[in-house]
Amino acid sequence: MSYKAFVFFCLYIDLAKGLITSEIIASHNYPVEVHTVLTRDGYLLDAFRIPGSKFCQQSGPKPAVLFQHGMSASSDVFLLNGPQDSLAFMLADACFDVWLSNSRGTRYSRRHVSLDPSDEAFWRFSWHEIGTEDVAAFIDYILDTTKQRALHFLGHSQGCTTLVVLLSMRPEYNKLVKTAVLLAPAVFMRHTSTLSQTVFRSFIMAMPDKEFMYHNGVLNKLLSNVCGLFVARVFCTTFFLISNGKISKHLNTSVIPLIAATLPAGVSSRQPKHFIQLTDSGKFRPFDFGILRNLINYKSLEPPDYTLSNVRPLTPVHIFYSDDDSSTAKEDIQNFAARVPEVVMHRISTPGWHHTDFVHSMTVADVINKPVIEIFRSFERLSSPTFL
Ligand SMILES: *[C@@H]1O[C@H](CO)[C@@H](O)[C@H](O)[C@H]1NC(C)=O
């Protein structure tokens, strides 16, 4: 990037830094609602809902869709390609009831009935708890609010991890999920080779449970002057975008400043630590606390594997994956697919298709979004109306 482009980039970030999900939705003239959901363990999480679209002509009940974002992202990630190319807007246009969740610790979900984000105890969670508690609470809340019996699920990366954890740990949720569409699911991680697994690995593993990469958090406080803020954002954005050591050639570059303005949205250090453990063990299992605490928590020296044979939503699981994704490598995805009872595989063979391309590529509308909408629609066509 040239010096001039860099300065422009920084200014753009500054202009965009106030961006929040509800404003992004409203700025494109869609209705938006904010809902706060309470988990069993006391976290208060915000979900944004797009209940309609002027392009949806039919009346009657709209099937609900739950979106679950990846690590360090938030509900924003599904909107940044704009109204023509983002799945959330396209689904609203296609007469679905769109719900964008935010996991604990992200910029919209930093409240708890008794804990404060400045308490260490607030951050004692991984994507395990996001799955068993947060996703469960969102599903319960959405079905209760819409009076529907089941919903569609769309996850990207860690968003998929959390659903798989939920369905394996609390299998009673399977019957509440009509379709599960998993974009680049992070399950087995043996072949992952991203920066957090290599360059930053020992730094991450040495961290206690605490807030990691919040866009107004630790990094920005360290670099307290204005330029420091820019540097922190640029650093974090680059961190998010780099896959295979370079930024994807398919990326919609207009999205970069918007990513910088909204990411990273907040993560507990236990989340990347837990992923690194999966790379080391080659297994898909809960957090490894060390022998002593494993014995107390799991009654075994090592964490037990998640039971993937429990993952049985109402229809086969749809897995989208690519040959060139170094975050969720195809070998690991195939290993996962072989252990889930029923799957439909969608392979993206486009060379250089990276992890973030599933949400931010120039061709995402045709390659991902339209096929996903068709999966949801075909369920609705084939199922009896009693599901609504
Ligand atoms: C790229 O992103 C910009 C900014 O959101 C959006 O306006 C544009 O429609 C997007 N284009 C494609 C092809 O995704």
Structure described in brief:
Keywords: Hydrolase, Lipid degradation, Lipid metabolism, Signal. With 388 residues, the chain is an alpha/beta fold.
Walk me through the structure:
With 388 residues, the chain is α/β, with parallel strands linked by helices. It has a single domain, classed as Rossmann fold (3-Layer(aba) Sandwich). It is built from 15 helices and 13 strands. The strands form three sheets. Strands 1, 2, 3, 4, 5, 6, 7, 12 and 13 form a nine-stranded mixed sheet that branches. Helix 1 packs across helix 10, helix 5 crosses helix 6 (158-169) and helix 9 (226-241) packs across helix 10. The longest helix has 20 residues, at 127-146. The radius of gyration is 20 Å and the shape is globular. The structure holds 2-acetamido-2-deoxy-beta-D-glucopyranose. 2-acetamido-2-deoxy-beta-D-glucopyranose (NAG) binds next to helix 3.
